[in-house]
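Try this one yourself first.
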């Protein structure tokens, strides 16, 4: 492939360990942004198109090894054959003065591994948002005959527009006209032990269902807080993928909807024929969960929709008030918000929405009115518990029952945390008064009343409210459940 003439700095030996400041082809290297087993990744300016790109450079020690070069080129061809919004785009495959490189889309933001490290287990709605987009990427890859072979959190990028992009098809296996391209060799680990499918561990043939298994492991980790299998060595972990059944996900998260639990455990089936047959059927199931929530036709299914804003707004990463049944009612609206905001962001890079994983909303006087109640709540969830942002939902969209109710729920917690017990009491009293035919709303109200009474030193009233809560067999989401647990401990320790 022809290359434009590099600058003088590019005439240095390709064995140089740092390419910062050099020019490779038409790409001026700015800084190193990543490092993998066989390549390093740099941020670069593509001068001809005035854009920033990511340059993946094969490590110099591998450039003389034909097998490594073969893998490197197959990576580029596999990824380059894919054109999908949820897949990192490959722009060019090239070589310049002995430097083998791939120029690809630069995705500012963070990867899922970094995000999970910061947030811990994710809310169901956030996990579904990620799952849907990764499944779309895998569907596109399967149609093109590409098996990723290394689906893991490090390869899932969270963009500043709220999109998800799958990166690094470096371990992909092409299936062209039914023929596999075998690139495995001694000393080369294909995939990552934490996420490898049983057939991958055993060295068997792979198809898209192997990616679905790895995807299932990642989903288990997103929701359960840890992968299903851990161990001190790679071998110890790998063997478990073949011989050990994963723990029940619902034992780690009692608030999870059963259809989602079943979906993930199906993905983790040891036999590939027991998994979803392809990403298309998986994606259809994820969408069906969303559809059932939006139509309200399957209350027993206890299913959720998507809400990326809750990622930053909730430090613990778990559902704020989504016990079984409540979550399906409280989060069904957010998918519409994401579609609206992401679609608007797609107009152009300069017109993109703020980073839903990092940015903060303005203070009260600057809070804008958005186009819908769903978008307004979506915006408020990134406010780091900004009271005014949630009040704006109620003020701007008083007729939007679902969003108003959800905003009031968040306000109740905010009032508790800042010690405004009068405002908190008013909110939870309203929940009790209006929740006589809604057990989930009643649960919030009674729990809130018990917590407020405990914080105000009235252990007797607090215990009474707790007893009523317990007698009705009500359930809470993680955040309120923890506040109620703390109230029980306070009451127990308080002298008579």
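Now uncover the answer:
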């Amino acid at each position: 492939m022809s290359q434009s003439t590099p600058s003088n700095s590019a005439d240095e030996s390709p064995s140089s360990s740092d390419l910062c400041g050099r020019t490779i082809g038409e790409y001026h290297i700015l800084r190193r942004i990543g490092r993998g087993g066989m390549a390093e990744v740099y941020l670069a300016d593509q001068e001809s198109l005035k854009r920033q790109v990511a340059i993946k450079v094969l490590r110099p020690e591998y450039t003389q090894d034909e097998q490594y070069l073969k893998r490197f080129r197959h990576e580029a061809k596999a990824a380059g054959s894919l054109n999908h919004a949820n897949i990192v785009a490959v722009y060019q495959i090239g070589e310049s003065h002995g430097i083998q490189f791939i120029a690809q889309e630069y995705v500012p933001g963070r990867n899922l591994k970094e995000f999970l490290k910061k947030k811990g287990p994710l809310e169901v709605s956030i996990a579904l948002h990620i799952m849907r987009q990764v499944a779309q990427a895998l569907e596109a890859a399967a149609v093109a005959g590409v098996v990723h072979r290394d689906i893991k959190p490090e390869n899932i990028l969270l963009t500043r527009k709220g999109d998800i992009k799958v990166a690094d098809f470096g371990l992909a296996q092409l299936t062209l006209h039914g023929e596999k391209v075998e690139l495995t060799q001694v000393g080369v680990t294909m995939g990552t032990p934490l996420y490898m499918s049983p057939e991958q561990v055993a060295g068997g043939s792979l198809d898209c269902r192997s990616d679905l298994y790895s995807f299932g492991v990642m989903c288990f980790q997103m929701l359960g807080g840890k992968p299903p299998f851990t161990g001190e060595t790679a071998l110890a972990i790998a063997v478990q993928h073949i011989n050990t059944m994963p723990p029940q996900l619902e034992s780690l998260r009692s608030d999870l909807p059963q259809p989602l639990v079943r979906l993930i455990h199906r993905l983790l089936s040891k036999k590939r024929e027991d998994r979803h047959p392809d990403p298309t059927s998986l994606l259809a199931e994820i969408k069906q969960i969303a559809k059932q929530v939006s139509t309200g036709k399957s209350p027993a299914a206890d299913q959720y929709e998507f809400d990326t804003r809750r990622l930053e707004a909730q430090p613990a990463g778990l559902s704020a008030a989504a016990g079984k049944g409540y979550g399906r009612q409280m989060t069904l609206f957010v998918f519409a918000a994401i579609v609206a905001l992401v679609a608007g962001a797609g107009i152009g890079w300069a017109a993109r929405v703020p980073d839903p994983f990092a940015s903060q909303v303005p203070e009260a006087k600057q809070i804008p009115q958005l186009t819908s109640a769903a978008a307004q709540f979506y915006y408020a969830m990134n406010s780091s518990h900004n009271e005014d942002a949630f009040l704006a939902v109620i003020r701007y969209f008083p007729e939007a029952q679902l969003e108003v109710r959800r905003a009031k729920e968040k306000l109740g917690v905010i009032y508790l945390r800042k010690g405004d017990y009068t405002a908190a009491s008013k909110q939870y009293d309203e929940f009790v008064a209006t929740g006589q035919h809604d057990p989930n709303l009643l649960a919030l109200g009674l729990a809130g009343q018990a917590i407020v009474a405990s914080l105000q030193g009235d252990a007797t009233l607090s215990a009474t409210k707790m007893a009523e809560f317990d007698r009705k067999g009500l359930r809470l989401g993680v955040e309120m459940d923890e506040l109620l647990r703390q109230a029980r401990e306070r009451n127990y320790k308080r002298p008579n």
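Discussion: The chain has three domains: 8-105, 109-175+190-299, 340-493. Residues 345 and 353 are 5 Å apart (CA to CA).
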